[in-house]
Design goal:
With 383 residues, the chain is an alpha/beta fold. Helices cover 21% and strands 27% of the residues. It has a six-stranded mixed β-sheet, with helices on one face. A five-stranded parallel β-sheet has the order 9-16-10-11-12, with helices on one face. Strands 22-23-26-25-24 form a five-stranded antiparallel β-sheet. Helix 1 links the parallel strand 1 and strand 2. It starts with 7 loop residues before the first strand and ends with a helix. The mean pLDDT is 93.
Length: 383
């Protein structure tokens, strides 16, 4: 499809990928009819803030807010896409609307993976989830967090800071899969020093309790049972691709795209549901920074076709928990000990880098103020 034929574009998803795609379409010269569909009633917001500042009572209530959108799209919020007809180029919504399009961006993201169907299982994915959890933490309940990834650890940190007694259940040392053993050890040491109890298990399931007796029981593979007032699971996410059934666009729970973010001519995908091309097949990169870069690339490809540059970026990761702030640029996780550019070991202020066996480099700043462009350059010099 030529750019001249692109008069109507629909962006399905109002997260950071959808917002960025809409903005980039305008920046790339698209001046036609733009419609943005979002299943939440809220304007786009910063999802990383939900498990950090927003959990704390008395924190800045606007910590999650993004600048007002400038794309001028017609926004249909609080409605969900239920189907797509690529041949007729129409999107079906749950309010009965049929939206025609010339080009479309699929950016419906993902939802929290659950361990059970129990009402008492709490997950944190959207703004309403975070506000509800913050309200529950005001009573200082006991909390069990299931999941030792960045989200689980950030939630545990917020619960501790709220004055709760917190136990975290993890398969192995928390954060090891994401950050590698060295950085994981730094964070877990800080967490334990602040009072977090860490339980290592092969697996965990949830079992219900009688009404009014608190959250579900957490049953460990070894037979032990943990009980608390609240049980929060943070065990990954599930891409929202069910509405694409029958289109041939979704494979194994994701939407494979080319190097420019196109699934087919006129159909782009970005964010948590997009499978980027790798030597081992389509792969998701469910990071905030990745969603932004993917959306920019995909929107430009819709407007400019093969004249648009392919996706090229260095992964950026950020977490704040247990009094530590980490920013990292480059492929995670690293192996072995870092080279210290400044500072030293022990969980204090440090600027570090690693060189991977494949020639890529990683730079990380722990409690260290440094502009991201400089951190990026440091990761490239490591390579």
């Amino acid at each position: 499809m030529s750019a001249a034929a692109l008069r109507r574009v629909v962006v399905v998803g109002n997260g950071i990928a959808g917002l960025t795609a809409a903005d980039t379409l305008r920046e790339s010269g698209f001046d036609g009819e733009l419609t943005l569909v979002g299943d939440e009633p809220h304007p786009a917001y910063s999802r990383p803030a939900l498990s950090k500042a927003l959990l704390l009572d008395g924190a800045d209530p606007a910590a999650h807010e993004l600048p007002p959108a400038a794309h001028g799209a017609t926004e249909l919020l609080g409605v969900r896409a239920t189907g797509l007809d690529p041949d007729r180029r129409r999107v079906r919504l749950d309010d009965g609307t049929d939206l025609p399009y010339d080009g479309i961006v699929l950016a419906t993201g993902s939802r929290a993976r659950r361990l059970s169907a129990l009402d008492g299982e709490i997950t944190l994915r959207g703004l309403d989830d975070a506000l509800a959890l913050r309200a529950r933490l005001a009573g200082r309940p006991s909390v069990v967090v299931v999941g030792g990834g960045p989200l689980g650890m950030e939630i545990a940190s917020g619960c501790l800071e709220a004055g709760c007694e917190v136990t975290l259940v993890s398969q192995g040392l928390p954060l090891t899969v994401q950050l590698g053993p060295y950085l994981a050890g730094v964070f877990v040491t800080a967490a334990r020093e602040r009072g977090l109890e860490v339980v290592d298990t092969l697996s965990a399931t949830l079992a219900g309790r009688a009404a009014g007796e608190g959250g579900p029981r957490v049953v460990l593979a070894e037979g032990a049972v943990l009980e608390a007032d609240l049980v929060v699971s943070a065990v990954g996410d599930v891409p929202n691709t069910e509405w694409l059934a029958g289109t041939g666009l979704a494979e194994k729970g994701l939407v494979p795209v080319d190097a420019r973010g196109l699934a087919r001519p006129g159909i782009a995908a970005a964010g948590d549901l997009a499978g980027l091309p790798t030597p081992s097949g389509p792969r998701r990169i469910p990071l905030w920074s990745s969603a932004i870069e993917q959306a920019k690339c995909a929107a430009r490809a819709l407007v400019r076709g093969e004249d648009a540059p392919p996706l090229a970026f260095r992964p950026y990761f950020w977490t704040e928990q247990f009094g530590l702030n980490l920013k990292a640029v480059g492929p995670l996780p690293p192996t072995g000990e870092p080279v210290y550019v400044d500072g030293g070991p022990g969980g204090g202020r440090a600027l570090m880098r690693w060189e991977h066996a494949d020639g890529t480099g990683l730079a990380a700043a722990l409690n260290y103020r440094i502009p991201i462009p400089r951190l990026r350059r440091l990761s490239e010099s490591a390579a």
